[in-house]
Amino acid sequence: MLNPHLRRINGIVASQGASQVILITLIPLIIEHCGLGLASIGALVALGTLCLMIAGPLWGALSDRVGRKPVLLAGLAGALIAQCLFVALLVSMALGFLEERAAFLALAASRIVYGLNAAAIYPCCQAWAVALGEQQKRLSILSGLSAAANLGRGLGPLLALPALIVGGLWPLAWLILLPLGALLLTVGLPKPEPDMVQPDTVQHSLPPPCVLALFAIALLGTASVGQLQMLMGPALQDVYGLSALGASSTTALLLAVAAICGFLVQVGLVRRLKAPQLSFMLGVTSLCTGTLLLSTTLGSILAAIGLLVFVAGIAFLVPGYNALLSQPRQRGGRLFGLLSLVHTAGYTIGFSIGGWLYAQQPQQPLMGLLASVCLIAICAVIALVPKGKKVLKRTQYDY
């Protein structure tokens, strides 16, 4: 049975995932009611993402020194204040009290504050969850966190739906309620014992080439997801002939289905595995298989099967390399902070490259995705053989 404190941490992660997706879902609403242009909204989202990427390692390292709970409380409190300011500004614009030019700088400041503070959430939750659980269950714990994030991303649009039916800007309330709920969950968590945050007293059991290869896979994996998310809408229009409204609706449905699929794989399969290297290898294999299926069946309904296999690959892969990289008696906050930076950078690169390549080669929409997955396969070989293979076999008994 899952530790009640781990359930709270999973709830915090799920709320963060839901908050991120809800903001993206509400972009058309913000454009219509607040008068912000798409370029302005894109700049605000990019600004927040940049701050997330910069601050993640700093928060993680700080949590190693002062503890997970105070750092997580500080991050959530700062994120909540920033979201309150962001929503207040948008409502003021909708009521005609502020014009876009006057409000943009204040909106940008709110996104900077949000990004700098929300960056504490994932590294602290991952390091804290690993410290709370047993070392041999690290893969199960990390897959549970990934599943919680996927569940939040899948349920986010559903949470906003009742408020969307009511109309107006009521869905924006979720941007405040979700971090508030996460803050309350954190308050109820116990303060970690002093030995739960330990100094880096041992060398990493993986050799440097394996560590670099695993970090490269983390970057390429999120870049692959970013490319696929960016390409969904345009491909549904150009390849499947859907209208703009139909493509947007189908994209939202596919993203929700993908998030729920990832959640089910991680809860039903990954958490039952004992060896993180098995999850890692299943992830690489499924990722390559899904990408090949997508590329060969694009234009038909069978491409949905390739998408689900691709999602299953990510669901196996992420907790697999997270568990392989994390080691006993290691500064977990620093590690997961670096992974947060790598993941955010990967998504950013994926969105940028995906859009640019599609504009250059619309007849080959998955060219960038195929290249990313090929590089993942090469990095996996580096991580597994020849020296890495022995190390990964040995680490089976460490988890």
Describe this protein's structure:
With 399 residues, the protein is mainly alpha-helical. It has two domains: 4-188, Up-down Bundle (Growth Hormone, Chain: A); 208-395, MFS general substrate transporter like domains (Growth Hormone, Chain: A). The protein is built from 15 helices and no strands. It has helices spanning 4-25, 27-34, 38-66, 68-94, 100-118, 121-132, 138-166, 174-187, 208-238, 244-268, 276-297, 303-325, 332-360, 367-384, 387-395. Helix 1 (4-25) packs antiparallel against helix 6.
Summary keywords:
399 residues; mainly alpha; Growth Hormone, Chain: A; 15 helices; globular; disordered C terminus; transmembrane helix; transmembrane; MFS transporter; MFS_trans_sf
Summarize the amount of helix as a percent range: over 70%
Helix/strand class: mainly alpha
**CATH class label of the largest domain:** Mainly Alpha
Mean pLDDT: 82
CATH architecture of the largest domain: Up-down Bundle
Number of helices: 15
Flag low-confidence runs.
193-205, 387-399
CATH fold field value of the largest domain: Growth Hormone, Chain: A
Determine the strand fraction and express it as a percent band: under 5%
* CATH superfamily (homologous) name of the largest domain: MFS general substrate transporter like domains
Number of strands: 0
Largest sheet: none
Q: What does the overall shape look like?
A: globular
Please tell me the total number of domains: 2
Protein name: MFS transporter
Transmembrane segments: 12-31, 37-59, 71-98, 104-129, 141-165, 171-189, 210-228, 240-265, 277-295, 301-324, 336-359, 365-385
Pfam families: MFS_1
InterPro entries: MFS (IPR011701), MFS_dom (IPR020846), MFS_trans_sf (IPR036259)
